[in-house]
Write a structure and sequence with these properties.
Shape: elongated
Radius of gyration: 24 Å
Number of helices: 14
Number of strands: 11
Length: about 375
């Protein structure tokens, strides 16, 4: 399926982004920019032509170039001349060996912002080592902090790949593009997931420095506090409570009929937390999730049901807000954030690899080298 020319809407309308290689965070960063209206061209390999698109390829167009071919490298460098930003997700040195490194690209386009997405960064003793999200968040401290008192748990790759990687890269690209518009000079943006995931821990490093963060699973925000954790219901489903503030905690107790119970009299007495947790586990296990939603949802008790991927798009709040969009018959999270003056374009589905090679090159004013 061939994609259409991106509509000129969204705050990044008119911005051109080139995506070269990478999985996970690099395509997600490109998708975020595409969601905000940028014209994103993804360079795919000839061997992938005709295959289904990647998992995070909406609002992107696909052109196939053989980056082992001098002619197609020349075409890619001409695309760099037309681009505002480039995103690449290879190990350090790979783009240089192909002839598409920062020196070559910036020589062709001094205003280009060259975004590099890696796990360990462009330099350092680990720079050339393979790794994945779990390894990157381990080095920065996040994996140590997540889990039960007995062991760390494997979280989804939110803190490394996407939060510590893609979103920090997007922030860096936008900042560098602003600077390039005023100065006429682009630059390299070196984004390392290990560093980004550590940056997400800034508050927890501060609490640790103040002596206010202890062993895993025993703290206010890591499941240690009985008033800030999930609970299993009678039907096997789960709910979450986050009644941190005294007023919200008091309201939760009133709604649960526990306001006079001496076990709950001192909210922040950690010696009482194990007993409080046992009591709340028994309480929530006595009724279904639907019952607890009827009692607590929408109140200041700080409550929400724990929804799965099928339930979340159908929740009334999500439906009212349009928090999810249906693309090719499947639910996807809607573009965020929302812009009042320059609304995001409607998400366009991912296209088959290579579907846009001729049309996109022509629209960017690039003649493919023979």
């Amino acid at each position: 399926m061939k994609s259409q020319t991106p509509p000129a809407t969204g705050p990044l309308a008119g911005v051109r982004v080139l995506l070269v290689g990478g999985i996970g965070p690099a395509p997600f960063a490109a998708q975020q920019l595409g969601d905000m209206g940028a014209d994103v061209l993804k360079i795919d390999r000839p061997g992938d032509a005709g295959r289904p698109p990647g998992l995070m390829a909406r609002n992107q167009r696909s052109v196939v170039l053989d980056l082992k071919s001098p002619e197609d490298i020349a075409t890619a460098l001409t695309l760099c001349e037309r681009a505002d930003a480039l995103i690449e997700g290879f190990r350090p040195g790979v783009m240089e060996r192909m002839g598409l490194g920062p020196d070559a690209a910036l020589a062709r386009n001094p205003r280009l912002v060259y975004g590099r997405m890696t796990g360990w960064g462009q330099t350092g003793p680990l720079a050339q080592a393979a790794g994945h999200d779990l390894n990157y968040i381990a080095l920065g401290g996040a994996l140590h902090a997540i889990g039960t008192p007995g062991e760390p748990v494997v979280p989804l790759n939110l803190a490394g790949d996407f939060g510590g990687g893609a979103l920090f890269l997007v922030t860096g690209l936008l900042a560098a593009m602003l600077q390039a518009r005023s100065s006429g000079r682009g630059q390299v943006v070196d984004c390392a997931m290990s560093e980004g995931s550590a940056a997400l821990l800034s508050m927890f490093y501060a609490l640790h420095a103040q002596g206010r963060w202890g062993a895993r699973g025993g703290n206010l925000l890591d499941g240690g506090a009985p008033f800030y954790r999930p609970y299993r219901c009678a039907d096997g489903r789960w709910v979450s409570v986050g009644s941190l503030e005294p007023a919200f905690y008091a309201l939760l107790l009133r709604k649960l009929g526990l306001e006079e119970d001496p076990d709950f009299a001192q909210q922040n007495d950690r010696t009482r937390w194990p007993r409080m947790r046992e009591r709340l586990e028994a309480c929530f296990a006595s009724r279904s999730r639907a019952d607890w939603c009827a009692l607590l949802e929408g109140s200041d008790a700080c409550f929400a049901p724990v929804l799965d991927f099928d339930e979340a798009p159908r929740h009334p709040h999500a439906q009212f807000r349009g928090s999810f969009v249906e693309v090719n018959g499947n639910w996807q999270p809607a573009p965020v954030p929302r812009f009042g003056g320059t609304p995001n374009p409607a998400p366009r589905p991912a296209v088959a690899i290579g579907a846009d090679t001729d049309a996109a090159l022509a629209e960017w004013g690039v003649a493919r080298q023979a």
